[in-house]
Amino acid sequence: MSEHRFSGRSALVTGGGSGIGRAVALALAAEGARVVVAGRSREPLDETVALVEKAGGTAVARVADVASPADVEGLVRAVVDEFGSLDVAVNNAGVFRGGRPFAELSDEEWRALVDTNVTGVFLALRAEVRQMRAQQGGGAIVNVSSNLGPHRQAPGTTAYAATKAAVSSLTRGAALEHIGDGVRINAVSPGPSDTAMSLRPGESAADRAARMKEQSPLGRVSSTEEVAQAVLYLASDAAASVVGADLVIDGGAAL
User: Can you give the pTM of this predicted structure?
Assistant: First the structure.
């Protein structure tokens, strides 16, 4: 373990069963946080918990759908019941639908995007702020947005990008309104990272690597650990005066 920046603190990570969420949970636990990982499927959450425990950390899995107000309220209560407080929250749960022109998107695909990516972040953010402002010491929240929407556009991603632009707006507005309550809110905006979401239909990891050599100024995708370290910075005391920021982690793609 390294600096133990989060010793004695309790953290919630939504979408914690894979990808960036899992990397964030592992990184927080490695620095002393007690972590609750949440998602809609039990098995991948249990896998994340097992990885945390294998590394000597503390984690608990909770099945919840961020699009459900009751689930979200229960999730925040569960963190407090389990560990006594909610000091750090990372709203990472998100879905992608698209890959084709905007006009071909179905009503169902649009609703799925909005339900998880916008309503899910709104519900989680609201519940987290209410808890953090009521407890001694406040807390820090990091929303996982995207470089798509707030920072750039790409064909086949218009609806997804719109939901992530909403996350960016929610982040800035809530940050302004609640910093006086002791709740510090920021966002990270990853570009393509080493997750299944960045793979095109039928594309292998090797295919993606070749494509990124051509498309990304950095020449590769970001690792989930790189994104996780940005999240930890924003949630840490080192970022105590960082409010409403949106840290882009995309290898220069949005430049």
Answer: 0.96
